[in-house]
Amino acid sequence: MAADQDHGLIAALLLSRSVTLLSLGEEIATNLGQRTKLVKLACTLVVLVLAGAAVSSVGSIGFIGLMIPHVARVLVGVDYRWIIPSSAVLGSLLIVLADIGARMVHPPYEAPVGALTAIVGVPFFLILTRKDRREL
Fold it and tell me: Exposed/middle/buried for 46, CB within 10 Å: 0-12, 13-18, 19+?
């Protein structure tokens, strides 16, 4: 399964420039010569491979993959060449911190790491949803 993750990460990094162009708007990306439908299809396939590899490797810690790219975008800007690697580092850091927290909740037992990430993730998405609603 590690080979799938490696290939998926390399493909994501190769697509990062195209995704950055696509984030400017589909019309602008098309005018710059990008084949937007092909990029969207390739991105969908890469996301499916990476999500499947991640879930099969570590289980369903869903909020990490949903939260961290938003945090990374705030920290490094909108360029996906920086968002993807910083998301990997920040995601692993959050998992380590959640694991440490899970071990400290009720020693000598360990609480589920997914429960701790959900405790952080649910308020994060409520705040994010309210913020997005105000901008509309």
Answer: buried
Q: pLDDT digit of tens for each residue in the chain (136 aa)?
A: 566 677 888 999 999 999 999 888 889 988 888 999 999 999 988 988 887 777 777 766 777 877 899 899 999 998 989 999 999 999 999 999 989 999 998 888 888 888 888 888 888 878 877 776 665 4
Tell me the backbone φ, ψ of residue 59, rounded to 5 degrees.
95, -175
Number of domains in the chain: 2
Q: Are residues 128 and 116 in the same domain?
A: yes
Is the full-model pTM beyond 0.90?
no
Question: At a CB cut-off of 8 Å and minimum separation 6, what does 21 contact?
Answer: 28, 29, 32, 34
Give every CB contact of residue 61 below 8 A, 6+ residues apart in sequence.
95, 98, 113, 114, 117
